[in-house]
Structure formats: structure tokens, C-alpha cells
Design a protein that fits this description.
Elements lengths: L1 H93 L1
Length: 95
């Protein structure tokens, strides 16, 4: 009978240890689930930010191209003015 009581006591101790381990593992699992949710939210925010930056980059590229085209037009006009002025100066020198 004493051997049976010892085995029951050992089994009871083992069950208590297993319950504590289960509780510890459950808490760890819950913490990891929370971390996973946080990382998923962070990934969504980063994806949204990436899209915003891509759009901003596209706007800047478009603006830069438009500015470059405007500068070329302005430069051509300035060159035409300078050539005309040089022609007038040469005409004055030749007379």
C-alpha cells in the first residue's frame, strides 16, 4: 500500500509540474502571438510608407523631367538672344 501512495504522490507532483510548465508555455505562446501581431502591423505600416515614398519619388521624377524640359526651352531662347546680340555687334563692327 505504501508503494501505491508513493506512486500516487509522485504522479500528483508530476501533474503539478506539468501544469506549471503548461502555464509557462501558454504565457510564452501568448507573448509570441502578441509579438507576431505587432510585427504584422509594423510590416503593414512599412508597406504603406513604401508605397507613399514610391508615389513621392514618381512625382519628383516627373517634376524633375518637366523642369529639365523647361530649362532646355529657356536655355534655347537665351542662346537665340545671345546669337542675335552677337549678330548685331558684328553688323555694327562691319559698318
Amino acid at each position: 500500500m505504501e508503494g501505491l501512495l508513493e506512486r500516487i504522490s509522485a504522479a500528483r507532483t508530476k501533474v503539478q509540474q506539468d501544469q506549471r510548465e503548461r502555464s509557462r508555455l501558454r504565457a510564452a505562446s501568448d507573448a509570441l502571438d502578441g509579438t507576431l501581431r505587432d510585427k504584422a502591423r509594423e510590416a503593414e505600416v512599412l508597406k504603406a510608407r513604401d508605397q507613399e515614398l514610391e508615389q513621392e519619388n514618381e512625382v519628383l521624377r516627373t517634376a524633375k523631367a518637366a523642369t529639365a524640359a523647361a530649362n532646355r526651352t529657356g536655355s534655347k531662347e537665351k542662346i537665340d538672344e545671345l546669337v542675335s546680340e552677337i549678330d548685331r555687334c558684328l553688323a555694327l563692327l562691319n559698318t
